[in-house]
Amino acid sequence: MSFKHKDILSIAALSPEDVALILEAAEPFKEVSGREIKKVPALRGKTVVNLFFEPSTRTRTSFELAAKRLSADVINVSPSSSSVVKGETLLDTIRNVESMQTDVLVLRHSSAGAATTLARHVRSSVINAGDGWHEHPTQALLDLFTIQEKKGGIRGLQVAIVGDVAHSRVARSNIRALTKMGAHVRVAGPPTMIPPFLERLGVRVFHHLDEALSGVDVIITLRLQLERQGRSFFPSIREYSRLYGLTAERLQRAAKDALVMHPGPVNRGIEISHDVADSRSAVILDQVSNGVAVRMGLMYLLSQLH
Ligand code: CP
């Protein structure tokens, strides 16, 4: 089966076969990052542009490394030092960049749908690196890659996604990706942080964390996104942490070999305790490391269309 998509805008737009193909394509690229010379010629002559209109450590670095390890030319456009500050529109900025013959545009933006709008107006492939509260598809793909690597598969696993679901594009992408690939998904958080439509996506909703964690194989803890909250969703951070923070004691409720995941950046002592974040159950740095292989696999698949 070949990959037919020009762009990667959401998990919603991918079929289970597409997801399986991306995970399969990523596999050989994992070995490349372990070599002394971490380079293959797969994207030689191609140009990848990173356009991050929101802060990022993991995703931006990972896309840059992935493109460089594929031998692409990589440009990072920083909005604060670009002509965006002079009032140029996002579309004009990107059309000007594209006129220099780019092949892949990686966009992070605070507006939901920004990558989708852009993709309609450009010839280059567009990869959504996070758009507002909407989706963060490559995060979900690297999370699935990590689960598959550690658990040998995804189908049938019990996965709990815990915390600030309402503001989390990672949660939306992961719910879609995990259910598509046959996992059973539970979400847990305060009623004010669980959107009402969520059960329609095929997940079970819990408001008591201890119940949600019972026997699960994987726990995905979410960052409390204070910067996206216009009002208070719970009495205090201490209260939130007491009720929804993942501690070593709570982790005992999960399966003995449960994985603890977090997309980062981690608020230590709020959604996850220091000892759990650093425990043998935590695969947080494996997620980051696998992100490079998954983004290499994805850009390789997209490059086959150009
Ligand atoms: N997981 C993630 O998107 O992290 P960054 O915001 O650092 O890219």
The number of distinct helices, counting runs of at least 4 residues, comes to: 11
> Which structural category fits the helices and strands?
alpha/beta
Number of folding domains? 2
In sequence order, what are the helices and strands, one letter per element?
HEHEHEHEHEHEEHEHHEHH
Overall shape: it is globular
Write down how many β-strands occur, each being a DSSP E stretch of 2 or more residues.
9
Strand content: 5-15%
Instruction: Report the bound ligands by name, code or SMILES.
Output: phosphoric acid mono(formamide)ester
The biggest sheet amounts to: 5 strands, parallel
**What distance separates the N and C termini?**
17 Å
Return the CATH architecture of the largest domain. 3-Layer(aba) Sandwich
Q: How would you summarize the topology of this molecule?
A:
Blueprint: H1 16-32, E1 47-52, H2 58-69, E2 73-77, H3 90-98, E3 104-109, H4 114-121, E4 125-131, H5 137-151, E5 158-162, H6 169-180, E6 184-188, E7 204-206, H7 209-213, E8 218-221, H8 237-244, H9 248-251, E9 259-261, H10 274-277, H11 284-303
Parallel strand pairs: 1-2, 1-3, 3-4, 5-6, 5-8, 6-7, 8-9
Helix pairs in contact: 1-5, 1-11, 2-11, 5-6, 5-11
Bound molecules: phosphoric acid mono(formamide)ester.
Phosphoric acid mono(formamide)ester binds at residues 56-59, 130, 136, 139, 263-265.
